[in-house]
Amino acid sequence: MQRVLLVTLEYPPMVGGVANYYQQLVWHVTNDNITVLDNKSGSLTPWWKSFWVIYKNIKVKQINYVLVGQILPLGTVLIILNLLFNTPFAVFIHGMDITVPQKYWRKRVLLKLILNKAKHIITVSNYTKQEIVKLVSNVNQEKIVIISPAPTVTPESISNNRAILPVDLPGCYILSVGRLVERKGFDLVIQALAKLSIKHNNVHYVIAGSGIETYQVNERVHVYSGLSNEQIALLYQQCAFLVMPARRLANGDFEGFGTVVLEAALFGKPCIGGEGGMSAAIIHNKTGVILQPVTVNTLANQLQNWLDNPVLVQQLGVQAQQRAKLITWEDNVNKLESVWQK
Predict the structure, then answer these.
(1) Which of 2, 109, 226, 289 is most buried when burial is the number of CB atoms within 10 A of its CB?
(2) Which CATH number belongs to the domain containing residue 243 in this structure?
(3) Alpha helices (runs of H) in 154-295, residue ranges in sequence order
(4) Both 177 and 317 in a single domain?
């Protein structure tokens, strides 16, 4: 039996999509042959300190396959262990973890070395796969495995005792879920809201995201942090539709996938999406819309279109829901287990 070690700097109680992704994969593994080594005690930083911690875990627990959560800096340790002891490993790639470091030639060289030495490369979308291929043109594409996130917040997240939202929200609001960072494009939604016709001056915008202090930008824009899964589920249930106009930044930062798109879809809500790996979460004109390009004007036009056509939004929502039901953590774990069994 394979004994697997997941080494990651991001894992709950740390908040974020990457941390949740790893936890859900671990939770759904069909047996107990995977161990998690995270950075709760600070034992994995700096990287040279983590070398001895990882080496000790491999020896004591008789690990014969390592999953690396962050290509830098943790991939550096596994390169050394692979050279010294032929330790097989797979590295996860989410997006900006390979694009942003390319600004530095040393890191670019190291990224290529790690990706070539890894037995497998696990990534979240075909978009991120193509970023890997652009970086390492001669990489063996057969060792790249796409394991996209599955929904975590679902209709089952709403218990019989309904959660209480921070405030009584208006009857018509559009929703975004995620950290308040530039690549998400939430600022574009706020600007686009002001361009809507007088007919829709009662439409509000709600942002639910971690690490955001509760405040009101203006009377039609509401931002909340620290919401429970149950509260976010209620927001999905009650919103008109989801808006996630992600964009690729000049520094290489981009959205690798878009898990919240699938979560909203389970509630029958389609999404207006943007650039990057969101094309893997949205089927254009079937489960939502992908904006190309993402600008205030294109977004305002699309918002106006959907608000004027609720029947179309409902139809897209039904199709989005049907697709989202087919994407599960159980299927993802089957792909993951096949990685270390090869």
Answers:
(1) 289
(2) 3.40.50.2000
(3) 186-193, 229-238, 259-266
(4) yes
CB atoms within 10 A of CB 334: 13
Q: Are residues 54 and 10 in the same domain?
A: yes
Do 83 and 200 sit in the same domain of this protein? no
Angle at which helices 329-341 and 17-28 cross, to 10°? 80
Supply the DSSP symbol for 314: H
Find the domain containing 53 and state its range.
4-150+328-341
Q: Are 190 and 174 in contact (CB under 8 A)?
A: no
pTM reported for the whole predicted model: 0.92
Q: Are residues 176 and 320 in the same domain?
A: yes
Do 4 and 65 contact (CB within 8 A), yes or no? yes
130: Cβ contacts below 8 Å, ≥ 6 apart: none
The verdict on 100 and 141 lying in the same domain is: yes
Q: Tell me, what DSSP letter sits at residue 328?
A: -
For the chain of 342 residues, list the mean pLDDT of each consecutive stretch of 10: 92 90 92 88 87 95 96 95 95 93 92 96 96 92 96 87 71 92 92 91 89 64 88 94 95 91 98 93 97 95 97 98 96 92 78
Transcribe 114-147 into DSSP letters: HHHH-SEEEESSHHHHHHHHHH-TT--GGGEEE-
Closest by Cα among 300, 244, 237 to 269: 237
